[in-house]
Design brief:
The chain has one domain. It is 26% helix and 28% strand. The chain is built from 8 helices and 18 strands. A 6-stranded mixed sheet has the order 6-13-7-16-18-17, sandwiched between helices. A hairpin with a 2-residue loop joins strand 17 and strand 18. Helix 2 packs across helix 5. The longest helix is centred in the middle third of the chain and has 26 residues.
């Protein structure tokens, strides 16, 4: 089984640096957003900083007595990490709150949770697609893979326009992929206030409002910790034979250096079903094969943040 070192996740950061109420809302909203629960995270004070990445080893060698060798230094790069401002502030019409069957407090709590959930879903989608998802957000993993000229991208071969999906494999650790939460991991929330709001025609009404704001970015210290299988469409064949999805994953894992293999794999439910349907059940009852929870020992996690309507990508993005 792939090892995930015992490091902090976003949930840990929020719990340590925010009120019990904020953590409670965050914890409830993030239950079904695996990126937030599983990818490691660190707090930071700045909204932009540089991190170091080793991209090459020094030259070493055996030598005889009194005979030198050619030596070199390791190749170290400074890479920029830019955090972006995420605004999840919300408002709730007081008329709607007062008409709620469970009372105003329940309506306010529901609205606060919905705003937090929307924010976390936004972060998850930005993780994969970056500026393709929101050009005001942080750089995502698809952009990083484009910079690699396709070396960590496997083309599954699908050709149906706007019906493609992807599998992303990553290694989350300090020298891999992790989130960076600004303001020391504090989500800036103000009190719930009564305030005037305006509709689309400029007419006023009273509402409950709350400020919810944070800085977040994605830190990737090596290009060798992320891979993608793209162009996964509902029916992919080579000749008359279906393309083996597990075979595609094996090809992707081959790209990673020994000891730097991914410890997380993310995909959609549709892709998971494609993998399951290619397996042959061996039970005496004749039941269908169950959904796999891992591939080659690496845990699989289903996410709504990866799309089933991606455009077809070229072999080398």
């Amino acid at each position: 089984m792939a090892e995930i070192h015992n490091r902090l996740t976003s949930a840990d950061i929020i719990e340590m640096n925010n009120s019990e109420e904020v953590f409670g809302i965050f914890n409830e909203a993030s239950q079904y957003i695996p990126e937030i629960r599983l990818i490691h995270a660190s707090p930071c004070k700045k909204t932009q900083y540089k991190t170091l990445a080793q991209t090459g080893l020094p030259t070493v060698g055996f030598r005889e007595s009194n005979v030198g060798i050619v030596q070199s230094s390791p190749t170290i790069e400074a890479r920029d990490v830019a955090l972006k401002f995420l605004d999840a502030s919300w408002s709730l019409d007081q008329k709607v709150a007062k008409e709620a069957e469970w009372g105003e407090s329940a309506a306010i709590a529901l609205c606060a949770k919905a705003a937090m959930e929307a924010a976390l879903q936004k972060i998850a989608k930005q993780t994969w697609y970056g500026v393709q998802a929101d050009n005001k957000g942080f750089t995502g993993l698809a952009t990083l893979l484009n910079l690699q000229n396709g070396s960590y991208t496997i083309n599954a071969g699908g050709t149906t326009a706007n019906a493609a999906s992807s599998i992303f494999a990553l290694r989350t650790e300090l020298q891999g992929v992790q989130y960076a939460w600004g303001q020391d991991g504090c989500i800036d929330t103000g009190p719930i206030l009564e305030a005037e709001q305006w509709d689309s025609e400029g007419k006023k009404f009273w509402a409950y409002v709350q400020k919810v704001q944070a800085y977040i970015g994605l830190q990737v210290t090596s290009k060798q910790v992320v891979g993608r299988i793209c162009n996964i469409t509902p029916a992919i064949t080579t000749g008359n034979n279906p393309v083996s999805m597990e075979g595609q994953i094996a090809k992707l894992l081959e790209q990673f250096p020994v000891g730097k293999e991914p410890n997380l794999i993310f995909m959609t439910k549709r892709t998971l079903e494609q993998i399951r349907s290619q397996r042959i059940a061996t039970t005496t009852t004749g039941r269908e094969a169950p959904y796999p929870d891992n591939i080659f020992g690496i845990p699989i996690h289903v996410t709504e943040a990866i799309s089933n309507t991606e455009a077809i990508l070229t072999t080398t993005p």
